[in-house]
Amino acid sequence: MDTPLLRSAGLSSLDISPTDGPALVATPALIDGDVAASAGLDLGLGGDETNLTNIGLDFGFSVDVNILRIWVDRRLSAQVANSFSWSIYTSPDNLDTSTWTLLTTVAPANFGIFENRFEITFPRVNTRYIKVVVRPLLPAVAGAAAFPNIFVTEMEALNSQSGVPVTSKTTSINHNFNFNLRGRITKKTTVGYNLYYNLRTEDPLDLERDQMTNGVYLNHVFNPIFSANASFQHTDETDIDEESVDDIYNASLRAAWLRTLSQVLTYSSRSSSDDSGDALQNAVILRTNAILYQGWDVFVDIGYGWDEIADGTESTNQNIKGGTNITPFNQLTFNVNYSYKETEQQDVQGDSQVETQVDFQGFYVPFPNLSIFAKISIVDKAAASDTLQNYSINWSPFDQGDLQLFFIYSEVLRSESEQTERTFGPSAKWTITRNLALDLSYTKSTTENVVLKTDTESFSAEFKLHF
Which residues fall within 8 angstroms of residue 138, CB to CB, at 6 or more apart? Predict the structure, then answer.
């Protein structure tokens, strides 16, 4: 049973480093129910190849989700649809200082036979914020020239459950209120105010949750080089009998030194109060973006943060992140990202905790009907070092893509539970006629931690008939 999930806000950004901030910006067109009108995100050749496209949702509260649907404004050929690689990230918040956790990478995602949408299925996760990260269409993909634009129109989320009794009944009622004001004080200064209220009730569990957010923001352009942004957001939330209050401050200064060189200095602060106590997070980040040459760009982040959690424990962290995107020729795109984070906790004996991660990712199209995606991540912590891998191969034996063959291999490390998940298997998609299609897949998954290892095998066959 597939249950659609209520979306409180659509979010998006263009950013080369999806594991951290800056915060995704509100994109109401992603959740307006119109699957034909563009939401302003272009995955075609006209998209920003120097950045990754982040497409996200805010559910208002944490929910279970395992399916995302990305609608686009036109039909895609099999070769083009299968060339996209979708990475799923989650986060408890959406701040300039947020950390987004990679859940899995899906490549390729199933593109609708009768509807213009991608359906991305992944392991169920409980989260308030979720996003998919994808790179725009590469010129090397067969038939790419016919798609100068592929506009995203809508993003949906679902929770798919099997084995649910047909007699079960759940009722969920949601009340949403949005009020926005925006005005221009001068030609260079803009101010705004946002009010959001959500009330959700669920039966038969008799749950009630409500959230009210008030926010103000200011944008000012000093000159063609310098511009600044500032914002404040206050949120009151009640979940059953638990109450919490969040205050979020953000301020940033942007310098566009050259067309190919820019920097952003950001300060973020968040104070939280709930039944467990008060907490405070602060961070300063300097981001530098540069285009070194056509087909070669880099970014560098330098950050420092100081936090105080509810029990009074204080900690500081220093982090450095950098990465590069290289397209040596049309058939190959290569990415390398590096991050270093050192955390020191007061009143704790011993050395500070250091974590480093290096990601190598490549997308190769050796022939028009064959594409290969690979990603290797090396995560090094004080206790252990892990190497994680993601591979996928897509082959369409026929030019029209009526028959498509796939193979995937994926590894995901969950640091908080010291658990590794591996998934691999082949699948096939055969469009028999315009109205009839067959999907076949075999998947073997292994979940392993220090005390338990679980193996799961599944085979599915699905006929789709459209009248």
Answer: 49, 83, 144, 327, 330, 333, 363, 365
Specify the pTM. Answer: 0.71
Quick one: pLDDT at residue 54?
93
Asked if residue 65 lies in contact with residue 123, where contact means CB atoms within 8 angstroms, the answer is no
> pLDDT: is 268 or 385 the higher one?
268
Residue 263 contacts residue 287 (beta carbons within 8 Å):
yes
In eight-state DSSP terms, residue 79 is: H
Tokens read off for 166: 């047909």
pLDDT at position 256 over 60: yes
In this structure, the number of other CB atoms found within 10 A of the CB of residue 351 comes to 9
Contact 437, 431 (CB under 8 A): yes
- Per-residue pLDDT at 166: 47
Per DSSP, the chain holds a count of helices (H) and strands (E) of 1, 27
Dist. CA 340–CA 318, nearest whole Å = 8
Beta bridge partners of 11: 26, 56
The answer to whether 67 and 157 are in contact (CB under 8 A) is yes
The first and second tokens of residue 348, run together, are 């704790």
Q: Which residues of 226-262 are buried (b: 16+ CB within 10 A; e: fewer)?
A: ebebbbebebebebeeeeeebebebbbbbebeeeeeb
- 290-335 pLDDT, tens digit per residue, is 888 887 888 898 989 888 876 678 888 898 988 888 888 777 888 8
Nearest to 284 by CA among 236, 252, 308, 243: 252
Both tokens of 327, joined, read 């397209």
Closest CA to 71 of 3, 146, 151: 151
